[in-house]
Amino acid sequence: MQLNLKKPREVKGILAVAVMQGQALPFPEVTRSVRKDEFEGKAGQLLAIDTHGKAAFRKLVLYGLGEKKEFKADCLRRFGGAAVRYAAQVKSPSVAVFVLLKPARDTVRLACEGAILANYRPVKFKTKKDDYFEVKELDVVTNEQLGDVLKKAAIMANAQNYVRDINENPANIATPQLLADEARKLAKERKLDVAVFDKGDLKRLKMNAILAVNQGSALPPVFVVLEYNRGRKNLPLYAVVGKGITFDSGGISIKPSKGMQDMKYDKTGAVTAMGIIKAVSELGLPIRLMAAFAATENMPSGSAQKPGDIITAYNGKTIEVLNTDAEGRLILADTLAYVAEAKPRAIIDLATLTGAMIVCLGRNRAGLFTNDDHLAKVIYDSGEKTFERVWRMPLDSEYKEMNKADFGDIKNIGSETGDAGSITAACFLSEFIGDCRWAHIDIAGVDNIASSHGYLEKGASGIGVRLVTEALARLAKR
Ligand code: BES
Ligand code: MN
Ligand code: ZN
């Protein structure tokens, strides 16, 4: 979608305006006859009015932001989303948005993000795209010079859509190989360094935890490292790590079949790591960034790993595999240990790691686990700003104790009953980060959404891209 700045009088087609409840309606020549029962600015309320020549533009779309005292900035993303959805519904290739609230830098950014996000729909596998109309142009109405704001909003939201689009590929298409190909493509486009390690490389490197998870799959694993500003050693190094399970059947500890199709999204963390390095490179943040992930299926078969197996991870620790469905932490163990060797200022990992996370926080906030209070604050604040919200969870030593194994150093489940399942999973990861500052974001509840809301459609959400990119932008400023 093309974004343009327009002066109010330059708008010809549809003009969408966000209105706070109780606020006098704009364009009185058009809205004079609007009755209160038709539109009063309630949150999410929408009214489209033909201007019948009473204004330079053809149609006015009023969008309610609700009461001032309950106003949340995210309403403006919903406004941008509603404007685009309205335009798509009436098959208009362009729509203009006008936010009367200040500061314009913030309100315009929000509306643009919402508009771009709402313009993405998961229709890539529909042969008839009749019910999907793509809006080509978004005109942002303002008298201010906000070109840089538009550019930044577009980078963030387009990176999120990029993640959604790759993630929407089911497991028969999004194989580990496809993720490696996508990484190579991204590296070429963004002039990043890329290394793709194959199964033989993983054997040589003794990344046995990744190999163990891969054992049951007919498809070979990949391990991918993307690097931004690799040569600029004077810049501080950060790392993002993602979980890349292209399908999680559970393996021998097989999952129930109900809902198993959603496990095509178990690669979200890996794809999100790609989206983050894409956004960071487009923003030109003054950091070095490494984005790493292992990708494999988790499948049952005659060659699959078995409960009780003991494996030696990349950092030398032995892991007793008591449940093959706790596979995410296994591939992350090797990936984190590998990344920690580069001694980054901080490692941030994203993973659809535990169902227990959904029990804890539902689908509105991701779980944040970190060994650093400053990192906690930066990521929490970034979550509030991007509305990709997180809530900090504990990592006390008592939880870490729960992972002690009878025969190996550490076991991959904290307890048979699943007590504190998300926390023991995070504690498991903490065994593989050396002495790095580290944050783990368990996105199991937010990686995909069951029904569309203000600006995100049902399907892969891409949540985490704007969150971590914003956090890295803040860290880069220090
Ligand atoms: N990928 C799942 C976690 C998950 C579950 C993500 C539901 C999204 C929705 C993960 O690999 C898993 O299976 N975790 C197990 C861990 C358990 C065996 C300790 C879980 O949560 O049940
Ligand atoms: Mn699993
Ligand atoms: Zn999984």
Provide an overview of this structure.
The protein is α/β, with parallel strands linked by helices. It folds into 2 domains: 2-137, Leucine Aminopeptidase, subunit E, domain 1; 156-476, Aminopeptidase, CATH 3.40.630. It is 34% helix and 21% strand. It has 14 helices and 19 strands. It has helices at residues 28-31, 74-89, 104-118, 147-167, 176-190, 199-205, 208-214, 268-283, 328-340, 356-361, 373-386, 397-401, 421-429, 465-477; strands at residues 2-6, 14-19, 46-50, 59-64, 94-99, 137-141, 193-197, 222-228, 237-248, 288-298, 310-312, 318-320, 346-351, 366-370, 390-392, 410-411, 438-442, 448-449, 459-460. The protein has an 8-stranded mixed sheet, with helices on both faces. Strand 11 and strand 12 (318-320) form a beta hairpin. Helix 5 (176-190) packs parallel to helix 8 and helix 7 packs antiparallel against helix 9 (328-340). The model has no long low-confidence stretch (mean pLDDT 97). Bound molecules: ligand BES, manganese (II) ion and zinc ion. The site of zinc ion has 5 residues, from strand 9.
